[in-house]
Amino acid sequence: MPTIICPSCKQSYDVEPDVIGKKVQCAVCNESFIAHLNRARQRNEFTPQQIKQSTGQQTRFIQAQQASQFAQTPPQFGRPMQQPHIPPVAESDKSRNTFALLGFFLGCLGIHNFYIGKIGNGIATILANFLCSTPVVIFFVGIELLTTTSDKQGLPLQDKDSPVPLVLGILMIVGGVLLFIITIPLYLAALGK
Fold first, then answer.
1. Residue 61 dihedral angles phi and psi, to the nearest 5°
2. N or C: which end of the chain has fewer CB within 10 A?
3. Under a CB-based contact definition with an 8 Å cutoff, are residues 74 and 24 in contact?
4. Separation CA 107–CA 179 (nearest Å)
């Protein structure tokens, strides 16, 4: 493995051969320099062809550096690469459990939609009570309880892994279907009179 030496502080590093001829930064003194072979070890570790190839790489690298206007930050030896900081995903201040409970007990009034800021959906639920039968509204509120996971701003609701919305949503869907089946004969009887 080739060895390079920092020209400022004389710290030596064992590096991979492809680093030779590239700009690096010393981990001790933070000085940037072009990685050249340590001449003392060069004779023992490399064939003349490898040395010639390395010198050609150094020349090409220097020419590319002079042609470039913006030099990139060189890698630092002895220091781990820092991972970029990823901010945590913001979460809504509203709870999905509260949303589900409001939907289960007051769903036909659209209160659960008003709670998470979806005013249009709340008004549409109220209007659906006048235009459709109550079992149909209960069925669709149950679907809302199962599928809604974010508030008006798109932020995820708290308690997203809770089973409460799932249980209450299924109960409302089943209840809506059963109520619809039960009320069909009543509607037919009313039409027959």
1. -65, -45
2. C
3. yes
4. 15
Per-residue pLDDT of 88-97, as tens digits, reads 567 889 999 9
Q: What residue type is 163 in one-letter code?
A: P
Helix locations, the chain, DSSP H = 39-45, 48-67, 96-106, 111-115, 119-131, 134-147, 164-192
**Are 146 and 165 in contact, with CB atoms under 8 Å apart?**
yes
User: Cβ distance 173 to 143 under 8 Å?
Assistant: yes
Is residue 164 within 8 Å of residue 101, measured between CB atoms?
yes
Q: Which residues contact 187 (CB under 8 A, 6 or more apart)?
A: none
Task: Note whether residue 185 is domain-resident.
Answer: yes
Per-residue pLDDT tens for 59-112? 555 555 655 544 455 555 555 555 555 555 678 899 999 999 999 999 989 999
CA distance 52 to 187: 95
Domain for residue 129, yes or no? yes
Domain count, the chain: 2
CB 37, CB 4: distance < 8 Å = yes
Alpha helices (runs of H) in 68-131, residue ranges in sequence order = 96-106, 111-115, 119-131
Per the listing, tokens 């690096």 go with 24
By residue range, what is the domain housing residue 166? 96-192
Please say whether the beta carbons of 13 and 64 come within 8 A.
no
Q: Is 56 in the same domain as 106?
A: no
